[in-house]
């Protein structure tokens, strides 16, 4: 059995000019848990997500996913390994319905398009039907079934946040990185999003979530990692982290 932690980042550096956004940050994430990644504004949390998902390349450091090094891999390869990141809703698909939007993000087999074009094959049609079934199941679990034929542009901000979770789920992930999935939504919906993440973790998905809403972090995270100024300050339970003087310092005086 593979006992490697799903995600392991070690000594990661990335500077923008003279600004050390990541200055030796590193942590590991445990399988099947919701882990919180917190820290003051500018701590490097989003930059870390960019590096983990391959959107930015770190200048040095090691990142392993399921025991294999990924720090030099392109984003689509990392996603295909099952490490998927959530975004703000994609602006590139304004005319799609919710159903179509989910279908666009379903996993594709290499060469599938070519195969389908040449053969129009039964296998390709079967694959399409499976994807459609998956899209409907994802919509149902996010309680978006009544909206599958609505245009994405017609959704409320909160519904778009749920759809963004759905997009990540369509990719058949083993682990999802959520960057502020509940930012700007009302408390009821924030709770709903929290419940969704908890139930995904219960089914075995590993989740790393950046979030400033500490009530949400306290409710859903079994572990919390604190970053400040491009480094990892500490890891522990929410209570341990909250009680730590260095963490309190980082939040009160650590802003640059
Ligand atoms: N593309 C970029 N070019 C230059 N500087 C950047 C870039 N992206 C981030 N930074 C800087 O790197 C530092 C870390 O930013 P980052 O967005 O990772 O912080 P964060 O922890 O996600 O903060 P927040 O909680 O406000 O989202 C900040 O000082 C930011 O201004
Ligand atoms: Mg950020």
UniProtKB/TrEMBL annotation:
<dbReference type="InterPro" id="IPR003439">
    <property type="entry name" value="ABC_transporter-like_ATP-bd"/>
</dbReference>
<dbReference type="GO" id="GO:0005524">
    <property type="term" value="F:ATP binding"/>
</dbReference>
<keyword id="KW-0547">Nucleotide-binding</keyword>
<feature type="domain" description="ABC transporter">
    <location>
        <begin position="7"/>
        <end position="254"/>
    </location>
</feature>
<dbReference type="InterPro" id="IPR051120">
    <property type="entry name" value="ABC_AA/LPS_Transport"/>
</dbReference>
<dbReference type="InterPro" id="IPR027417">
    <property type="entry name" value="P-loop_NTPase"/>
</dbReference>
<dbReference type="InterPro" id="IPR032823">
    <property type="entry name" value="BCA_ABC_TP_C"/>
</dbReference>
<keyword id="KW-0813">Transport</keyword>
<dbReference type="Pfam" id="PF12399">
    <property type="entry name" value="BCA_ABC_TP_C"/>
</dbReference>
<dbReference type="InterPro" id="IPR003593">
    <property type="entry name" value="AAA+_ATPase"/>
</dbReference>
<keyword id="KW-0067">ATP-binding</keyword>
<dbReference type="Pfam" id="PF00005">
    <property type="entry name" value="ABC_tran"/>
</dbReference>
<protein>
    <submittedName>
        <fullName>ABC transporter ATP-binding protein</fullName>
    </submittedName>
</protein>
<dbReference type="InterPro" id="IPR017871">
    <property type="entry name" value="ABC_transporter-like_CS"/>
</dbReference>
């Amino acid at each position: 059995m593979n006992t490697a932690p799903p995600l392991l980042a070690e000594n990661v550096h990335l500077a923008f000019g003279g600004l050390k956004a990541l200055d030796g940050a590193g942590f590991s994430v445990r399988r099947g848990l919701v882990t919180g990644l917190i820290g003051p504004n500018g701590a490097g949390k989003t930059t870390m997500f960019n590096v983990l998902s391959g959107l930015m390349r770190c200048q040095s450091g090691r990142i392993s996913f399921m025991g294999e090094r990924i720090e030099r891999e392109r984003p689509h390869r990392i996603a295909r390994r099952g490490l998927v990141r959530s975004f703000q809703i994609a602006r590139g698909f304004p005319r799609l319905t919710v159903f179509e939007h989910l279908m666009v993000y379903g996993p594709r087999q290499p060469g599938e398009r070519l195969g389908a074009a040449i053969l129009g094959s039964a296998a390709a049609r079967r694959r399409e039907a499976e994807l459609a079934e998956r899209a409907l199941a994802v919509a149902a679990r996010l309680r978006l079934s009544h909206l599958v034929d609505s245009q994405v542009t017609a959704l409320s901000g909160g519904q778009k946040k749920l759809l963004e979770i759905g997009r990540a789920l369509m990719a058949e992930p083993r682990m999802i990185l959520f960057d502020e999935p509940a930012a700007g939504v009302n408390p009821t919906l924030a709770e709903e999003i929290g419940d969704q993440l908890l139930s995904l973790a219960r089914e075995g998905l590993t989740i790393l979530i950046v979030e400033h809403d500490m009530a949400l972090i306290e409710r859903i995270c079994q572990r919390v990692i604190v970053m400040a100024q491009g480094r990892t300050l500490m890891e522990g339970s929410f209570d341990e982290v909250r009680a730590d003087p260095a963490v309190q310092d980082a939040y009160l005086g650590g802003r640059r």
